[in-house]
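Continuing from the previous page of notes. For each protein in this section, the sequence appears first, followed by its structure tokens. Read the first protein now.
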Amino acid sequence: MLSAHTVVLDSVQLDAKFLELPFDDGSTTFTIVLPNARDGLVELEKQIDKVLATTDFGQKYVQVSLPTASFKIERTLLETPLKTLGVQNIWSNSADLSGMAGVPGELRANRILQSSYIKADETGVEAIVDTSVELRVTEEHNVVADHPFLFYIKYKGIIVFVGRRVRY
């Protein structure tokens, strides 16, 4: 069981608690969005835009307990999301990847696999970049994350990963 002191926002509007765990690098945070109701994840997911737009965490600190967990997330075939972001030609025979190898048209992308690994245990939170949580200690309040929740990772204020934990 991961146990840490962390900053918290209790959102009445979303009926959830936001628990922000900073990584050692100072630029990355792991945020748990824990619905107040044990079966509240579905309702929370319906408001994902509001969840991801929440930024004002204030300065209230709590003691959080999170069951030891590992998340391995793999996503293949990223062609559609990358095309949405403007990456268009790397899969075609006319791809110009000559800056990496060969001549234009000789090299193209076949498949892009994204793998992520997040581990939460007694020592903190570890991500694929092998960082850990810096813990801060202040006043005592307790929150136990023992039911389904959303989480996201921000790097320099930009959300780079969103997921959910549903099994216990």
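Done with the first. The second protein uses the same format. Note its length before scrolling.
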Amino acid sequence: MPGQAGLLELAAGMVLRLDGVEWRVAEIEAQYGRVLLAAGAEQRWRSIRWLVHHRDCQSVPAEIEVVDGLVGQPASLDDLTAYQQQVLRVRVAHLLETETGFRGGDPLHPDPGEPRPAYDPQGTTLGQRRRSKVAELRGLGVEEAALLGLGRVSERTLKRMAAAWAAPAAA
């Protein structure tokens, strides 16, 4: 049956049939938009776009092991590009400075010049530190704040970020 309507779901370990040949999805590099397909000893990298537009790409129904309701590999820092990892570290440093007064989050191992007066936990409340961080982030250039994903941060945003940081990982 050439071409099938609907979405193509991809997960590591699933099997796809391409022109009658079954290929196992060995690896997915979503950040690069590609998958590694394996059939026996043969392996081929293909773009997700190529798969989606392939005239005879079908998923082969199979039992996929489901762990805690999740399919596929767990998320990790390796899923991010070097730039995305750097942005994440800066965002976390801002959050930890707000919550603890220290960009590394550890008062026993402060960076030079820490804690800054506006974030000193000995002299400020958490609410004051959050208001200081909102003011600091508003002082960033529009492009810089947007690149960090911190262009429209409020106290409420910081509270949600802190709750998400403290919550146990879903996987």
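What the second structure shows: Residues 77-166 form one domain. Helices lie at 48-53, 82-100, 126-138, 142-147, 155-166. We return to this in next week's lecture.
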